[in-house]
């Protein structure tokens, strides 16, 4: 499940980045920000997809991806609600929707990482029961 979640995140991020760069819909975010965010999403998407193709994705990098996704999701909510940019109604909906999707990727990746750690014996081990 971890590798699937990483690849899904990679494809979605890459596609969002390309769409942002090629179309740049009017959502109320300045063009320079859209170009920067689109470029980041393309590179991030390619990197996360590549991470998902590894036989055993590096746990530390996966943790960084999960933390980054959680921060991105929180930032999306803040961007949509604190009026950092003069978002249009469509912009608010799109920013919140992609934030929710990114949060979903973080949850899938966290569950996948936990499952992979348990399956490989790298997870936390239960304490031995005392029979006192």
UniProtKB/TrEMBL annotation:
Keywords: Membrane, Transmembrane, Transmembrane helix. The keyword Transmembrane applies. The chain crosses the membrane at residues 35-52, 61-78, 84-108. This is Integral membrane protein. It comes from Lentzea cavernae.
